[in-house]
Amino acid sequence: MKKIINKPENYVKEMLEGLYIAHPDLITYTADDLHCLVTANKREGKVGLATGGGSGHLPLFLGYVGKGMLDGCSVGDVFQSPSAEQMLAVTKAIDSGAGVLYIYGNYNGDIFNFDMAAEMADFEENIQVLSVVAGDDVASAGPSAPGEKSTRRGVAGIFFVFKCAGAAADKMLPLEEVKRIAEKAAANVRTMGVALTPCTVPRVGKPGFSIGEDEMEIGMGIHGEAGIRHGKIEPADQITDEMLDKIITDLPYTAGNEVDVLVNGLGATPLDEQYIVTRRISMYLAEKNIKVHRFYVGEYATAIEMAGISISVLKLDAELKALMEAPACTPFFRQ
Amino acid sequence: MKKIINKPENYVKEMLEGLYIAHPDLITYTADDLHCLVTANKREGKVGLATGGGSGHLPLFLGYVGKGMLDGCSVGDVFQSPSAEQMLAVTKAIDSGAGVLYIYGNYNGDIFNFDMAAEMADFEENIQVLSVVAGDDVASAGPSAPGEKSTRRGVAGIFFVFKCAGAAADKMLPLEEVKRIAEKAAANVRTMGVALTPCTVPRVGKPGFSIGEDEMEIGMGIHGEAGIRHGKIEPADQITDEMLDKIITDLPYTAGNEVDVLVNGLGATPLDEQYIVTRRISMYLAEKNIKVHRFYVGEYATAIEMAGISISVLKLDAELKALMEAPACTPFFRQ
């Protein structure tokens, strides 16, 4: 895919410079490092929420820093984890005495670096850090046994975890409570995606894999991780049904449940197609007697310029529903 | 480009069904016709604002119907004008006695149908309709002589016209005043785009034109209309400068001016690249001593899945600035 960029090695730096220029009312950076993004509206006494991860997924991760959601984000190079030092700098900047909760996707590099950052924050800075690792992608691994660590990747569904935890922190709840809520949201969200085209990391300059001219890959990850089925492109309704079958039976979501649904474009797929999928999801869930509280449609977590869509479903209870409805104002999400 | 769709002939119908499902609090339709989209929150006594145009440009046009912006939109098939009857149905539904203002892009099919709708509204329904036709694309034709009709196409800059006129109507200003403001915004906005890839109309099933593997087309229209220069892809900064040179000298925008800037993705181009362009625009305008009041970055007006970007600049005065800052809540734009 052709790109409007300067030198590939400056891709993330220049993207970040543009972001700070465009959103000075919402975000800034700390430690003289563009990769250490923090809110411009720190609230004293509030639990700090931090995330982090590789670039190439805008608006994920950094785009959800703002009022009612996250307080900081360490930003890595494309598809690469930021360093422990960068996460520590973010942690120090956003802590205001109430502790910090990390919420991030289940990737080894991130876990390694952010665990180290949490330890440094504790030992060197006396900041209490707790962590919630989100793994919502049902295509990436089977469900984990009770008490076992999930091996599922974190994908677009983390938006729901950010939103619920962000609203909880905004209510000035204590760290343990915010963590409980983040874990509850993470435990109740499932995601699955389909990719039609690969994506190109700017420094690499060519796609890391290929998908045939008339083919799709169901369950592909947001870095191009292999999916669960490769085949001819099918009609949107059929693709949607296949993804929902996997999602719905996994938690499971059952008749009488109420859910929020995120229909997420992976990059190059137009909104029109996302709404065509929305229509089918609505029909599918109605048939299962699962009630949709609200649809979120648009690009919430991308894979650079990959064509494709993911569907995330969050099972609601009264607590999560109220948190999802709370106001938020970030560069990429407002309600 | 591969698509997640069902039958191509149902593309717009199913997209619209998905939209109404996702945004029941903001939009609905009239005349039993999905193509006649109107606000779900009609305000009595307010001037009604209607737009219309072909599909394939989401969030343009219909995505800006909501509080503080537009009241209705007639929706055509992909890249095709809606009918006069559809625009008339929208007009009837949104009029509440204060008259209706049409704001739409400068395309012959739309002008023909919407002029007819305006006449029918006047003669048959006794609704006063005025029209503002936006033509902001500096690449599409030279500037028009005073008093002469512009032959420039309307593109992403119409967002600014919607926003200013919408805020004016929201202040309960009378029809003539809302029209004056829409005309003022339209007169002070200029846009230029660059395309890297073509787009595919679903019914046609293949791209309507091609752009070479390492080439771009500067000035291409949002339906693939020929641009002003075809050439090898250049670095983002150079492309940005070339587009800004044309935009800035056209109005012209001069030292001391204050502007709002829209950096618009045409479909397949990631936000990262839009921010890289934002960065350069900021540097370019600072050098010219033109002050940016606010950047808007994202997909505001697309050409299905075209890769590319457009830049729109709105020259502000105190009146337009206040209107741009007013709140709005639509499916695709909130502030």
From TrEMBL, chains A, B:
Residues 7-333 form the DhaK domain. GO terms for cellular component: cytosol. GO terms for biological process: glycerol catabolic process. Keywords: ATP-binding, Kinase, Nucleotide-binding, Transferase. It comes from Acetanaerobacterium elongatum. The keyword Kinase applies. This is Dihydroxyacetone kinase DhaK subunit. GO terms for molecular function: ATP binding; glycerone kinase activity. The keyword Nucleotide-binding applies.
